[in-house]
């Protein structure tokens, strides 16, 4: 394990001085600023506060926001697997499996950092009129009990506020966002291992587009479903679409037993990660490393 952690350490060497990393985090902040605009408008017009984590919940409670936030990872993970000046030495002193395990841990840590920053950015942007207490705010009540939330496309619903506290909801939304982003990172890694550098970004983009295209109207047209059968279509999409599995409002929440629970979604993503890890490990047996133009 010491060798694996050493590989992870070298992957982070000069990480925060990397222009690509800095640019990605700046884009993450800009995206958070744009997505929280819907909430700040309500706060300013009605002069009501928000709970500290509510902006994060409303911002990443719909599929479009989850998709947009995860797309920045295409840039952040474009260079997977990480090749450093000491990679040849690491491969001599360790095994390919240990080196790959170091890549796995690196992806997990970067994804966690990315998700944490997303939470911090959305909270800081609304900090001026927020409070830390674990109670839903007046703004949340307005958005949930009126048509205001629906009109602004803010996913604040009554059933969420009646079933869980803000911090409890935040943990679940964070977990779903983290799991979806993590699977995207592993898709990019496997794509690069099998097809070469930059090809992983194509696979990651296809993974994202797959979830985006699984809209109820499209699936209903393919399956020739009538309007009264749309409920069945919605349930089907919630189970088979990775993007919908990452959306908090698409879950059971104690109201609809046919929809997946939060933990079932976590198992769904765990299954995808397991398959991707197996594929990566199999590829490692014949992966051609390139150093200074030479393959080893």
UniProtKB/TrEMBL annotation:
Keyword Glycoprotein among UniProt keywords: no
Membrane-crossing segments per the record: 21-43, 55-78, 99-121, 164-190, 202-223, 262-281
Superkingdom of this protein's organism: Bacteria
Alphabetical keyword list: Membrane, Transmembrane, Transmembrane helix
Keyword check for Disulfide bond: no
Protein's name in the database: ABC-2 family transporter protein
Organism: Blautia ammoniilytica
């Amino acid at each position: 394990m010491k060798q694996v952690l050493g590989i992870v350490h070298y992957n982070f060497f000069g990480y925060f001085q990397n222009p690509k990393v800095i640019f990605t985090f700046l884009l993450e902040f800009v995206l958070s600023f744009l997505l929280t605009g819907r909430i700040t408008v309500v706060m300013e017009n009605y002069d009501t506060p928000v709970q500290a984590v509510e902006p994060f919940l409303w911002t990443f409670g719909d599929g479009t926001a989850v998709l947009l936030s995860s797309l920045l990872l295409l840039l952040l993970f474009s260079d997977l697997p990480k090749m450093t000046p000491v990679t040849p030495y690491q491969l001599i002193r360790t095994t390919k499996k240990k080196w790959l395990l170091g890549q796995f841990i690196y992806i997990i840590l970067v994804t966690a950092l990315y998700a944490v920053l997303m939470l911090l950015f959305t909270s800081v942007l609304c900090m001026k009129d927020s409070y830390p207490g674990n109670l839903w705010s007046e703004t949340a009540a307005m958005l949930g009990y009126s048509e205001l939330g629906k009109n602004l496309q803010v996913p604040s619903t009554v059933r969420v506020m009646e079933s869980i506290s803000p911090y409890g909801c935040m943990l679940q939304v964070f977990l779903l966002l983290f799991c979806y982003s993590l699977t995207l990172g592993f898709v990019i890694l496997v794509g690069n291992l099998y097809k070469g550098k930059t090809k992983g970004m194509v696979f990651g983009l296809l993974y994202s587009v797959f979830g985006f295209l699984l809209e109820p109207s499209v699936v209903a047209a393919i399956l020739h479903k009538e309007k009264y059968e749309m409920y069945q279509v919605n349930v089907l999409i919630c189970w088979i679409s990775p993007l919908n599995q990452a959306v908090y409002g698409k879950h059971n929440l104690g109201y609809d037993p046919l929809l997946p629970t939060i933990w079932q979604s976590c198992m769904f993503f765990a299954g995808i990660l397991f398959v991707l890890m197996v594929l990566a490990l199999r590829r490692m047996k014949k992966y051609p490393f390139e150093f200074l133009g030479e393959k080893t």
